[in-house]
Write a structure and sequence with these properties.
The complex is a heterodimer of chains A (about 500) and B (about 250).
Chain A (H helix, E strand, L loop, with lengths): L1 H14 L12 E2 L4 E2 L1 H17 L8 H9 L3 H7 L5 E5 L4 H12 L5 E3 L7 H10 L5 E5 L5 H8 L3 E4 L7 H4 L2 H13 L6 E5 L3 H4 L9 E5 L26 E7 L2 E5 L12 E9 L3 E8 L2 E7 L4 H16 L4 H10 L7 E6 L2 E6 L4 H13 L5 E5 L19 H6 L2 E5 L3 H10 L7 E3 L3 H11 L5 E6 L1 H13 L6 H5 L1
Parallel strand pairs in A: 3-5, 3-6, 4-5, 6-7, 7-8, 8-11, 15-19, 16-17, 16-19, 17-18
Antiparallel strand pairs in A: 1-2, 9-10, 11-12, 12-13, 14-15
Helix pairs in contact in A: 1-2, 2-3, 3-6, 4-6, 5-11, 5-12, 7-9, 11-12
Chain B lengths: L1 E7 L9 H13 L4 E7 L12 E4 L4 H12 L2 H9 L3 E5 L1 H5 L3 E3 L5 E3 L6 E21 L2 E17 L7 E5 L9 E2 L1 E3 L2 E4 L10 H16 L11 H17 L1 E2 L1
Parallel strand pairs in B: 1-2, 1-3, 3-4, 4-12, 5-7
Antiparallel strand pairs in B: 5-6, 7-8, 7-9, 7-13, 9-10, 11-12
Helix pairs in contact in B: 1-5
The chains are: A alpha/beta (about 500), B alpha/beta (about 250).
Chain lengths: ~500, ~250
């Protein structure tokens, strides 16, 4: 059975004798232990299967962890074997969606190794390489803080950098530290590698100046600018001189067309732009994709300006990798939604609308999208504080929930920090009597559904582990497949 | 009856949801029929001692703190004079550091402080991150706990005999070893705890409101209790977090 195989893998791995390099062609090895790569891959698949069997989750990082501990340079070697190389996508917000959109564009033409389930640290990237069947191109979303190490090991041929927002300060440290890491990544890229950056983010757009030939993408439709920067706006101060930027248009958080009136530091020229944007509520968004004098209409099936950014990132990355513009558009239009980011799940005669929230900028966009689509009267807000959510829950106070609260008649708060979420609503001006605190996720879901009318849609805004928990509950009841089955 | 508040550098120092603290102060004043007016004071704006009953200063990232430090340091006399006259102060994280004598970064660069709190801060090699629980006795005989989250590399050393905000029951505190957290001078308190601090510690919000009213009217008011069930529930969860997983590096 599977369990025995795993033990055998470990045991044999440790007993494999030291071989000369000439005999190791095609094998993983290092100075401590040596595991034939083929055996290792088989074993890793077993490990992933085991992880699923014991219900530990998707098993999406287990094989990478198991084998990387045997061979610290495993990722480097696996990446080198990719005939078309690897592309990395990183951002505070939207990296999963951007990579998934790029996979839709590239997938029909090349075999991908893609960490679709969002396992975006070293182990997750390694695991996705192990589980892919003779992949040609690696397409990986990468955690912002892990990018320097993963880029050093993978030696990507293209990197797409989306945005930097404050996020989990207890884990990542301050924004500037992450930005410094990214700068080092850009400086260390292979000379032939392509760099794709979001020009609308001052910190990220500036990286294009490090490298000629970078592809800069951004929005160009001031009709959709917000009247003023929201509370949580980061990067308000000029990178060069520290004076406040002036925004001709701010679209999402601090992303937009900025210029420093003092020293002139401004958004770089856009090589890939979205113009003529038409929001279609919660159903999607249309825009005109423009690059190098060519224009194509795009109809996205996911909503919000932030998804236009994700689409531009994916399009630019695919263009950098040689995709034709028509393939780019076809891929973007095929795209449904990345796992758990924006999902509609039918449950009997009602349905759930799940929007992941994980930091102020992302939550602000979720609120904006919901309100634009017709403000709901009831919502379930699910706040956990596991490491993946951020142990520090103070970020919920930086989110502008008020436009959502203004339309709500009742809110159900849940998760391990349900009481904290309740306080955020209360001190946001929401009546304490209309707040129901139901810490247990399943009970909160039941309560929300009970309060929803037949045929209605229950809006649920969960943090990451709360989303996983809710999905598990819904899957146990037979309404959705577990994601590791879907992503396979 | 209105409490006049000066919020220092709100557009620079707002990293850990500082507006949550302001929302709590403002709501708890209004629920008792007390007005609450907030005036933002930023670089170059005048701060005249006695015109405000409460000063609030939050935390920022290193870059933002460096941008406002010289302006804040130049207000040292005005701030010390205010506090000597009974003005209440809540300073959190970066604001707490910059109200001391100085903050010295990892690069050796020193930011001047306003010199209100008797302490000095030097950035250390490790970050002190995690839930934190304090035992406080701001008024003799009245004991209460504060539950919050700390995230700082700065090691803050209080002068001998200086009064901390509280004793660390779980977490790191000012320096990770003295067992002290925060500082208190008269009606001014500074702390590393954010979270934000006041929603789950409403007694401190009420203490600050009372001190602000005392400054305004010359006598301590009786503030009636408010229904704080949600606040207490959040306090209990946060306190349990501090006890069970406390600080980590």
């Amino acid at each position: 059975m599977g369990g025995k195989s795993l033990i055998t893998l470990w045991g044999e791995g440790c007993k494999i004798p030291r071989l000369s390099d000439s005999r190791l062609a095609g094998y993983a090895h290092d100075v401590r232990v040596r595991v034939p790569l083929t055996v290792g891959i088989a074993g890793a698949r077993v490990a992933a299967g085991l992880s699923r069997l014991v219900g530990a989750g998707g098993g999406t990082t287990v094989p990478g962890k198991v084998l990387s501990s045997l061979d610290p340079e495993l990722l480097d070697r696996l990446a080198q074997r990719l005939p078309l190389g690897a592309a990395l996508v990183s951002a505070t917000n939207g990296k999963t969606t951007t990579a998934a959109m790029a996979a839709q564009i590239l997938g029909p033409r090349v075999r991908l190794a893609h960490n679709a389930s969002g396992a975006n640290l070293l182990s997750g990237v390694t695991s996705s390489l192990l589980s892919a069947k003779s992949p040609e191109l690696g397409l990986f979303e990468v955690d912002e803080a892990a990018l320097p190490e993963i880029a050093r090991r993978v030696r990507p041929r293209a990197v797409c950098l989306g945005n930097l927002f404050r996020d989990q300060l207890d884990r990542y440290g301050e924004l500037e530290h992450v930005a410094e890491g990214w700068r080092s990544v850009v400086q260390g890229l292979d000379p032939a590698a392509a760099l794709v950056v979001n020009g609308d983010d001052p910190q990220v757009g500036d990286l294009a100046r490090e490298r000629s030939g970078s592809i800069v993408f951004g929005l160009d439709d001031p009709r959709h600018a917000v009247p003023e920067l929201l509370h949580a706006a980061d990067s308000k101060w000029c990178l060069r001189c520290g004076r406040p930027y002036e925004y001709a248009a701010a679209y999402v958080g601090h992303l937009g067309a900025y210029r420093c009136p003092t020293c002139g530091h401004a958004r770089p020229e856009l090589g890939v732009a979205a113009r003529g944007i038409e929001l279609r509520g919660l159903d999607g968004v249309d825009f005109s994709l423009e690059t190098r004098g060519e224009t194509r209409p795009v109809r996205l099936a996911v909503p919000g300006l932030y998804n236009v950014y994700n689409a531009l990132g994916a399009a630019s990355l695919a263009i950098a990798l040689g995709s034709k513009l028509d393939d780019v558009v076809a891929g973007l239009e095929r795209f449904g939604a990345a796992f758990g980011r924006f999902e509609r799940i039918p449950i009997g005669d009602k349905r759930l609308l799940v929007l992941l929230v994980k930091n102020p900028a992302g939550a602000n966009e979720a609120v904006r999208t919901l309100v634009a689509g017709g403000p709901p009267k009831l919502a379930v807000l699910a706040l956990n504080d596991a490491i993946a959510d951020g142990r520090d829950v103070s970020w919920i106070w930086d989110v502008d929930w008020e436009p959502l609260l203004a339309g709500l008649e009742r809110v159900v708060v849940t998760g391990e920090r349900a009481a904290e979420m309740a306080l955020r609503c209360k001190y946001g001006g929401f009546s304490a009597e209309a707040i129901e605190v139901v810490p247990q996720l399943g009970a909160a879901l039941d309560r929300g559904l009970e309060l929803s009318p037949t045929g209605g849609e229950l809006v649920v805004l969960p943090t990451y582990t709360a989303m996983l928990g809710l999905r598990r509950i819904v899957a146990d009841r037979g309404f959705v497949q577990p994601y590791w089955e879907r992503a396979a | 009856m209105t409490i006049r508040v000066a919020h220092l550098y709100p557009e620079y120092l707002n990293i850990y949801a500082d507006r949550g603290n302001i929302a709590v102060l403002s709501s708890r004043a209004r629920w008792r029929g007390i007005g609450f007016e907030v005036e933002p004071i930023s670089v170059g704006d005048e701060l005249r001692p006695g015109e405000h009953d409460l000063l609030y200063i939050g935390g920022g990232q290193d870059r933002e703190q460096a941008l406002i430090a010289p302006d804040l340091a130049a207000r040292g006399d005005a701030i010390r004079e205010s506090v000597a006259g009974g003005v209440a102060v809540l300073a959190v994280c970066g604001g707490y550091q910059l109200l001391g004598r100085f903050y010295r970064g990892r690069d050796g660069v020193e930011l001047p402080g306003a010199g209100l709190f008797p302490h000095e801060t030097v950035a250390g090699a490790r970050r002190m991150i995690g839930d934190c629980l304090l035992a406080c006795e701001l008024d003799l005989g009245t004991r209460a706990t504060l539950a919050g989250f700390e995230n700082h590399a700065g090691v803050t050393r209080l002068d001998d005999g200086a009064e901390p905000l509280g004793r660390v029951a779980a977490g790191f505190g000012n320096d990770g070893e003295s067992g002290f957290e925060g500082a208190r001078v008269g009606s001014a308190v500074g702390t590393y705890l954010h979270g934000p601090l006041l929603p789950r510690n409403p007694w401190l919000a009420d203490w600050l409101l009372a001190r602000a009213l005392e400054h305004r009217d010359g006598e301590a008011p009786e503030l009636g209790p408010l229904p704080d069930g949600l606040e207490q529930a959040a306090h209990v969860v946060s306190a349990e977090r501090a006890k069970s997983r406390g600080g980590r590096f």
